Amino acid sequence: MRMEVHVHADIPILEGVSKKQIEQALAPWLEYLDAEGLADVKSLEPEEPGLRFDEKELLLLVCWTGETGRSFHAALEAALESLGPLCYEAVEVELTLYHDNGEQESRLLFVGPTAHAIHEAQRRCMIEDVTALLARQFGKERVAEVAALVDRLFEQDWKERAAEARKPERAFETATRPARKHLH
After folding, report:
1. Residue (of 73, 7, 72, 80) closest to 45 by Cα position
2. CB within 8 A of 68, min separation 6: which ones?
């Protein structure tokens, strides 16, 4: 079953990392797309850059729409996991799935240099989302109370994870997010 997807992110890359290293990290995704390198990745939407490394700003710019099959998610996740150690900081990667019935589903993938950096990016993203949602109805003080609670939940979660038996660190994580339309 083919599905149209959109992947969007601005991923900060460590100084000294080459375009070739990024392409090697993204190899599972590039192989899936039958692309030799970043320049070969073309989006279905002509105004989208696809995958581009801005060497001056040290940013991997991802704005790509394409038709994918069942193994796309595994290829994307493997690529993000390999890319993680090359990242300067953890950020979210938005993945939007467009279903045949007109509905869309949004997911957040997080990529970053360490599990802790990813956890902090997840915390930041959750607090931003909750704050924006609650600000429509409640005043700043009440919103701040909930944001503080969310912050404590993330702190407790990290402490619990640290107390668990060691698992291999992953350079990415997945979360679901309510559907939002992308405005480019």
Report:
1. 7
2. 2, 3, 4, 5, 32
The reply to whether the predicted model has a pTM over 0.85 is: no
Q: Which residue has the tokens 């360490």?
A: 114
Tokens for 64, please give them: 């790509």
* Dist. CA 173–CA 161, nearest whole Å: 14
pLDDT tens for each residue of 17-62: 999 999 999 999 999 999 999 999 999 999 999 999 999 999 999 9
Q: Under a CB-based contact definition with an 8 Å cutoff, are residues 109 and 92 in contact?
A: yes
The helix/strand/coil state of 156 is: helix
Query: How far is Cα 27 from Cα 78, in angstroms, rounded to an integer?
Result: 9
* CB of 125 closer than 8 Å to CB of 141: no
Helix (H) or strand (E) holding 61: strand 59-68
What distances in angstroms separate CA 104 from CA 80, 100, 181, one per listed residue? 22, 9, 9
Place of tokens 């309510």: 178
